[in-house]
Write a structure and sequence with these properties.
single chain; about 350 residues; alpha+beta; Helix Hairpins; Heat Shock Protein 90; five-stranded mixed beta sheet; two-stranded antiparallel sheet; disordered C terminus
Length: about 350
């Protein structure tokens, strides 16, 4: 982690230097151009002024020759030009110093802002790789231990071998499920989903029927119709994740409240379940990959990988929606918002 921070600090300084070099090159170039143009303009005006004075002067000839002698080193024209040139150069130097200081600060800020998404993505990728490796290593280590222990037993019976194979098969199924979820996350990062008009209340009614043992727990309050433009399989999976989460983290036979509503031009879906309160400092992390606020909250064998809510958040982001979570001593509530479609005649688009 420290090596990564040093790498991005070095990259920030280098990018700042390049920004500043480009900025100063432009500033100095403009300064030279401005100096040349202004110097010529000043010289031209002084020369015109001098000739105007001489032409209107009726005094002695030596004085006239003094003004006409603009080639001499001490002639008024050259003296005034030198003064104007010096003042102009000094002003441009001050301006470039200000540009250097202000540009340096601005370049550093811009460099940090430019590299911040890259640093965050790099950090997230490293954390994701580390967490994925840990999750994959756990079932593999369990399988390896069981195999080694049983292979060392010369009196291993067929029944025991069968139990070993069943246990290993269970771990293999876990690995398959985990790999499928990881692949699904990867696809969501890159795929462009086809969209169509979806009636959210109808979809909710269909999905709760997939839980025959828990269907009586669902208390649904819904509008007759609320449509959104989205990818149907993705929204189907999104709602399923929220329902699974509510069942998994609530006491058996406790009610699960579902509400479909409209608010501020958006379709809202609220899923509320009873259960242990989630600390406020852990709520923002619930949508992080592999994050589990409390493993003890899961119902035994239903322990997951901490990827469901990450997938839900990704689906919501792809559809330009919003998902929030709140938790009290009585209820934990997930609230989903999706853009509303007033007219179902909207044509599907990508």
């Amino acid at each position: 982690m420290q090596a990564m921070q040093k790498m991005f600090q070095s990259a920030t300084l280098k990018l700042t230097a390049w920004y500043l070099i480009i900025l100063m090159a432009i500033s100095i170039t403009f300064s030279v151009v401005i100096y040349q143009l202004n110097y010529r303009e000043i010289s031209f005006r002084l020369e015109n002024l001098q000739h105007s004075i001489i032409e209107g002067y009726n005094g002695p000839a030596p004085f006239s020759r003094y003004f006409l002698d603009d080639e001499g080193p001490n002639s008024p024209l050259i003296n005034e030009s030198r003064k104007a040139s010096s003042q102009m150069i000094l002003s441009l130097v001050y301006i470039n110093i200000v540009v250097l200081v202000a540009g340096g600060l601005g370049a550093f800020f811009l460099a940090r802002r430019t590299l911040r998404p890259i640093a965050e993505a790099h950090e997230a990728q490293g954390r994701f790789t580390s967490d994925a490796s840990h999750e994959l290593r756990t079932p593999l280590a369990a399988m390896k231990t069981e195999l080694e222990v049983n292979l060392r037993d010369p009196k291993l019976e067929i029944g025991e071998a069968r139990e070993l194979l069943e246990s290993n098969l269970e771990e293999v199924n876990k690995l398959i499920k985990l790999s499928e979820m990881l692949l699904h996350l990867s696809r969501l990062d890159h795929d462009k989903l086809e969209v169509d008009t979806i009636d959210v209340p109808s979809m909710v009614q269909e999905l709760v029927q997939r839980y025959p043992s828990d269907v009586e727990r669902f208390d649904i309050t819904s509008r007759k119709k609320a449509t959104t433009l989205a990818n149907e399989p993705a929204i189907n999976e999104l709602i399923t994740i929220l329902l699974d989460n509510a069942i998994k983290y609530s006491p058996a036979d406790s009610p699960i409240f579902i509400r479909v509503f409209e608010q501020y031009g958006r379709v809202g879906l609220e899923v509320k379940n009873q259960g242990k309160k989630i600390p406020d400092d852990k709520l923002p992390k619930l949508f992080d990959r592999f994050y589990r606020a409390d493993n003890s909250r899961t119902n035994g064998a239903k322990n997951g990988y901490g990827l469901g809510l990450s997938i839900a958040k990704k689906i919501v982001d792809i559809h330009h929606g919003e998902i929030t979570v709140s938790s009290t001593d009585e209820f934990t509530t997930f609230t989903l918002y999706l853009p509303i479609v007033r007219k179902s005649s909207v044509k599907p688009q990508e």
